[in-house]
Amino acid sequence: EVQLVESGGGLVQPGGSLRLSCAASGFTFSYYWMSWVRQAPGKGLEWVANIKQDGSEKYYVDSVEGRFTISRDNAKNSLYLQMSSLRADDTAVYYCARALRAGIWGAARSFEYWGQGTLVTVSS
Amino acid sequence: DIQMTQSPSSLSASMGDRVTITCRASQSITNYLNWYQQKPGKAPKILIYAASSLQSGVPSRFSGSGSGTDFTLTISSLQPEDFATYYCQQSYSTPITFGQGTRLEIK
Q1: Could you report the per-residue pLDDT of A69-121, keeping only the tens digit for each?
Q2: Cβ(A67)–Cβ(A83) below 8 Å
Q3: φ/ψ of residue B8, rounded to 5
Q4: Which of B9, B94, B98 to probe the A interface (max A CBs under 10 A)?
Q5: Which of B17, B32, B42, B62 could form a disulfide with B13 if both were Cys (CB 3.0 to 4.6 A apart)?
Q6: What residue of B is the nearest CA neighbor of A47?
């Protein structure tokens, strides 16, 4: 069974930093693109960043470029999101998501499995 | 960036109704379109990928169609568990973008 378990969320002051983690199990982690997707309270879904299987390619939404860094450790089956210079509008539930299985159109940019999410609140 | 626009934003329907949700892309995305269902407090769940392919385990009352810029999600006969929010998402290019969501409520 595929499982994605996020951790590391919490309350942080504006300008602060936080590191999210996602522990993956039930599949060969190194075979898949991975993403972070967030959802502000009462709002829709927003893709944040994704990373290629070997970590050689990383992409970000403009609003987090230069502030957030996505990374992965295939030996530990883990995905990370280092967030810095946090702002109030970064407040959201952050989901870790696994790409669709290979061979499907747009698989790398699609989300087949999701974690339960971790809440990040940026407030003074 | 590719903008995704869903309509309607909300919809009231009754059990057994046939419901259609529309998604329009700001440029052609060929068939790179997915649909997700999200229930309150839960993570989204993929229903349809590549515009019209039903994800394994998803009931056959869900179907998707379209290509280019215009897409639809159809639920053929609403069941109680279908009342949720639905999102389209383009997988054509980065940045990956979602529609604003369609909230499906019980009439």
Answers
A1: 999 999 999 999 999 999 999 999 999 999 998 888 788 999 999 999 999 99
A2: yes
A3: -75, 175
A4: B94
A5: B17
A6: B96
DSSP states along A51-68: E-TTSS-EEE-GGGTTTE
Residue A47 CB-half CA count within 13 A: 32
Three-class secondary structure of residue A49 per DSSP: strand
| A50 and B CB contact within 8 Å | yes
A115 touches chain B (CB under 8 A): yes
What digits encode the pLDDT tens for the residues A15-43? 999 999 999 999 999 999 999 999 999 99
Contact B91 A61 (CB under 8 A): no
Q: Give yes or no for a contact between B62 and B80, defined as CB atoms under 8 angstroms apart.
A: no
pLDDT at B1: 97
According to DSSP, the β-strands at A58-60 and B10-13 are unpaired
